[in-house]
Amino acid sequence: GRGIGVNTFRGKSYFFEREGRMITGLICTYPALDPGTDAFTEDEFADLEGCTIGKKGSLRYPGIYYLSQKDSDLGELRTNELLKLSDGYEENYYYLDSKGRAYINAVVKDNIFGPDGRRLQSDSGWEVIEVEEDIYERNDYKRDGTLDDNAEPLLRAGESVIVNSSGKLKKHTKARVDGVTYEVGNNYVAAPVEKD
After folding, report:
1. Which residues, 6+ apart, have CB-to-CB distance to 155 below 8 Å?
2. What are the backbone dihedrals phi and psi of residue 58, each rounded to the nearest 5 degrees, phi first?
3. Overall pTM surpassing 0.85 (yes/no)
């Protein structure tokens, strides 16, 4: 398949296409993933699925990455940060690890990042939201992004959480949302309290 080159300059990494063009924007090299928003995927880099990134020491595993689109640090691979991308209508957040890859189906700093890498958050106020897929602790993932053999999901697909518009999750508490009282466990799972 096509390869993406990685160049490191003054401690910062940059990705290049085979033709030598610097890559910018949100990219996804993992075939089964859709990074949830096309607003930051530049057309010429929209089809990088299955591309390998780097080799040996510079190798990056398949996933979602973001390379700056700002003039001041154009093309720089963003790492170790909560990345906010806003298209003027909605704001999407991704949490990038030390190699620049977005966490997927993981809890990072009391936020859930779902199957498309985007942070789970309500439209406004506190909302009860069902998780689509099993969610794991970020430490359950190995460096290549695969799950540890004995990893157990923190949240199972179909379970509910209570989350606000900044992605904050209720934990170990009772909460009322839309007139319903929920008991929220240590693992963020929210269950309605049965009335006597």
Report:
1. 107, 112, 131, 134, 135, 161, 187, 188, 189
2. -100, 5
3. yes
- Classify 6 as helix, strand or coil: strand
- CA 3, CA 1: separation in Å to the nearest integer? 6
Q: CA 38, CA 20: separation in Å to the nearest integer?
A: 23
Output the 3-class SS for 144-156.
CCCECCCCCCCEC
Q: Note the Cα 113 to chain centre separation in Å.
A: 5
Quick check: 25 and 66 in contact, CB under 8 A?
Answer: yes
Tell me: pLDDT of 100 over 70.
yes
Contact 157, 174 (CB under 8 A): no
Q: Phi/psi of residue 108, each to 5°?
A: -130, 120
Ordered alpha helix ranges (H), the chain: none
Task: Give the torsion through C-alpha atoms of 115, 118, 122, 127, to 10 deg.
Answer: 30
pLDDT for res 60: 87
Are 118 and 37 spatial neighbours (Cβ–Cβ below 8 Å)?
A: yes
- Beta-strand relationship, 127-130 and 160-163: antiparallel
Instruction: Give Cα 175 to chain centroid, integer Å.
Output: 27
